[in-house]
Each structure stands twice: as C-alpha cells, then as structure tokens.
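To make this tangible, this section ends with a sequence with its structure tokens:
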Amino acid sequence: MSAALVNTWAVTRLEWRRLLVRPLAWVVAALTLAWLAWNFTLMLGSFLTGQIQRAALPDGPGFTDLVAIPLLGQLAQLAFLVVPLLTMSVLAGERRNGTLPLLLATGVPAAQIVLGKYLAVLGWLLLWLALILAMPLTLSPATHFDWGKLAAASLGLALMLAALAALGVACSAFASHPAIAAAAALIIALGLWSVNLGAQMAGVNGGAINWLAMSTHEQPLLRGLVSTTDLTWFALVITLTLTLATRRLSADREGG
C-alpha cells in the first residue's frame, strides 16, 4: 500500500472517530431519521388508501413514484442543513482549536488531509442515505418496485451528498469559525441549487445559467433519468471544491 493511501486512510479513520463521538452527529441522525420515518408512514398510509383507485389505471404511479422517490426528495431537502452541520468543524474546528498547525506539521500533504476528512464525512452521509433507503426496501417483497428508477434516484442523492460534502469541506477550509463555515456552505449550496430560478421564471430553460444550477442535474436523476452530462457536473463540482480546499490548506502550511 502506498504512503498516500496510508496517510489518507489514517486521516479518514481519525475524522470518522471524531464524528462518532460528537453528539451533534448522533442528534442530527436521530432527528432526521425520526422525521423521515414519520413522513414515510404517512406517505405509505396515503398510498394504501388510494391503492384500489389506482388499480384501474394500467400505467398509474406505483409505490416507487408515490412513496420511495418522495422520501428521497425530502432527504435532499434536509441535506442542505445536515451537511453544513457535519462539515463545519472539519477544518475550521481545527483552526479554531489551534490544532491545525499540529496537523499540518505531521508532514501529510494537504491533498491527503482534505481527501481523508472528506471521505469520512461522505461515509457518514452514505450510511445515512442507506438507512433511509432501508425504509421502502423493507416492503420490496410485498409491493412492485421500479428498481431502475429507484437506483437512478439513489445515485442522484449520493452524488448530491458528495457535492454538498465537498462544498462544506471547502467552506470549512476557508472559514475561521465552524459557524461561519456552516452558514457559508448553506448559502452557497442554496444559491447553487436555485441560480437558474430567475431564468426559469423568464421562460429560459437552456443556456449556461441553467447548466450551472444543481437542480438542473439533480431533478432528472430523481425522475430516473441518468445522463453523462449530469454525472460530469457533479464530478466537476466535487473536484473543484476539493481542489480549492487543498490550495487553502497548502497556503496555511506555507504561511506557517
């Protein structure tokens, strides 16, 4: 195993342990899971109530469209708040506590520090997503699933969480206080999601401004449509934000 992988894994494991002992991560997980479980119960009840009427429609919406996908949509909304809370202390907390110089003095390259911390947060978020997906999947033996649409929506949520996590790590790298990092990540994420809102209100559905918006690439995935353009957009956002975080951390090391 190369030194780069060893260093990255060491940072990931350390950050993962910090997440496990932080009360905030557990509180956020418990509250969001409870909220989504309640909404899942309500949507399931509504689905069962109208099942007889939908049986007469040969191409009517099924369990995936009326329960599973809306549940993932609610998770996407919560992610705008959850991810900044998880990432705000990744690097800004180190800077505020005075431990960032010690971390930089270990000799681990900035890119490996950023990547290690990012992977730890991403692992927590993917576990969160898996627990949410477990709710509708428990009913798979008793109902008909559109597995292709559910897989595309799950991929879309995973990519969205990955992009928001990368953005949160970058904001934490630049901020001097975790609260500032959380606020910046939330504002930038919301702006990135709705940057094309004005263009849509004006009736413009194409162009660069629409391509820049996260919603343009996330919503087709939630509808079950996977395209190379959407995957490329998320890859570019993740790469760009992590690169910015790495450059900032390298500047901190050079500045002492």
User: Anything to note?
Assistant: The two ends are 30 Å apart (CA to CA). Residues 47 and 66 are 7 Å apart (CA to CA). Residues 3-255 form one domain.
